[in-house]
TrEMBL record:
Identification of the protein by name: Metallophosphoesterase family protein
Lineage: Bacteria, Pseudomonadati, Pseudomonadota, Betaproteobacteria, Burkholderiales
Molecular-function GO terms, alphabetical: hydrolase activity
Record family assignment: Belongs to the cyclic nucleotide phosphodiesterase class-III family.
EC nos: 3.1.-.-
Taxonomic source organism: Massilia niabensis
Amino acid sequence: MRTIIHLSDLHFGRVDQALLGPLHDLIHSIAPDVVVVSGDLTQRAKVEQFEEARAFLDTLPGPQIVVPGNHDISLYNVFRRFVKPLDRFKRYITDDLDPVYVDEEIAVLGVNTARSLTIKDGRLNKEQVAGIRTQLEGIDPAITRIVVTHHPFDLPTTFEEKDLVDRAAMAMETFAECGVDVLLAGHMHVSHAASTASRYRIDAYAALVVQAGTATSTRGRGEVNSFNLLRVEHERVEIDRYGWDALTNTFRVILTEKFLRSGNVWAPAAEGMLAAGI
């Protein structure tokens, strides 16, 4: 079994400082095998915000898979937005926009979906999808395959189709061929976990999509600050959602969801949802 901490939408520049210490301590107590950050490390892609994000990441365990989000591209500086869109991200966070971690049980692939030409939307292109296929070729079928993006492939039905990453359907066809198991994303500041079966009708294939809320931003959009802990086995994934409890000033488990694999189809386990109020 592998454990993965899934953080997203940190938004340094709009961070609740009171959350950073408890989040740091809890992550270290969990001692994950991998820490994933699915984009929007900053609020406005400013140098000082990237410096703060970098300093925080340096306090967390590794290995880390970190991808940019739309907020990590300058919004108002037109030259920087279109000529050097991710220059600061590459300078302060990582110059690898397609990071990969592979061990004996999991393969985690990060993919950049942030684009200069849109304010908040994201997309994948054919070259990126082909790159995912190449990365996964030759990997043992027993290894669980995880793709990390900022923009999501699936959302609750209360959201619109336009909120999904552009060219999602094209990518999902390739994911089916490559046997991608889990899709991790952020962007909407909403937590969510489900099978992709209802949105993408692909024969004998459904991935598990896991959406993270915002771990530290003051822009909660009606949801408490939260992050995910995934316990990954080849035939089973268990997801603990940790939410911020303002009464105790701690993150605690507020929801546990369990998913099982049957062939190449992921679906909720029968006992899959245990809820607790916050």
